[in-house]
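Could someone model NAP with this protein?
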Amino acid sequence: MISTVIIGAGNMGSAFYKGLASQRKTDRVWLCDQHRDKLEIAPTDRRIDHPANAGNVAECILLAVKPQSFAALMAAVGKIWSDKLVISIMAGITMKVIADATGASAVVRAMPNLGARVRRSITGWYPSPTVTSIQIKHTQELFSAIGMTVRLKEELQIDGFTAVAGSGPAYVFLLAELIENAARDLGIDEATSAQIARNLLGAGSLLLDEKERSAEQWRDAVTSKGGTTEAAMRVLQERGLPDIFRDAIAAAAERSRSLSHDDKSH
Ligand SMILES: NC(=O)c1ccc[n+]([C@@H]2O[C@H](COP(=O)([O-])OP(=O)(O)OC[C@H]3O[C@@H](n4cnc5c(N)ncnc54)[C@H](OP(=O)(O)O)[C@@H]3O)[C@@H](O)[C@H]2O)c1
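Reply:
Sure, complex below.
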């Protein structure tokens, strides 16, 4: 493991640190945040309270701050990471912007998702041509700590990946919310409705655990001819759910593309 400082110990940065800690891989990992309380998940000698000190201990900087915090962060640090591997999980900030701001030529851009909290992220990542094979191996190891990893073929694929996988948890939560609301409409009490919605998502783990069937095959398997599930599926198809989903995800991809070209977000 290359020595690494995670800058930003919020949702994602803390998930990274905890994922690495659960695999006993934090020997050479430091955590940095402007809120000292967020550093408490790391031992005292692994805490850094100012990002300008990150380069003193690490060969790799993992940027896990919000995109809108990036400009202020770099203004405080200056261009002192030119010899570092800089990995960014910030949405909508291109490798060029990161390379220009940090001075680094070895840059990896990545998109994890909230599944990172339970080591079930799927992270898409793309390295600049100057990233060495040792740095590639290190990147794989870091992202494996929070789930599965996919190396993308070009940076532009990050936008589609963000729309499907980065925003993906929200689609699943929406589905749970809609099922919960529908259960209440049918007269089921509030607590039971919420419990049903949560437990149903457990069916999703069949997709992970029993990979011989696709999502479509699982759906077919539980949809008997003339049965209740078929009645529901017919309404969903007739009202255009597949088209709505396609349009929604296309809108997310377009937003990701436009964020990359919106200088104000940097
Ligand atoms: N959350 C997700 O599901 C998700 C999924 C994929 C990718 N991402 C990406 O992951 C990144 C982090 O998201 P998040 O949800 O983890 O954000 P977050 O919870 O807000 O965590 C970021 C942390 O970094 C701190 N910070 C900001 N500027 C700093 C500086 N100059 N020095 C030290 N610490 C600083 C923040 O402090 P303040 O609160 O004071 O700013 C905050 O504690 C974002 O760029 C986002 O695009 C997030």
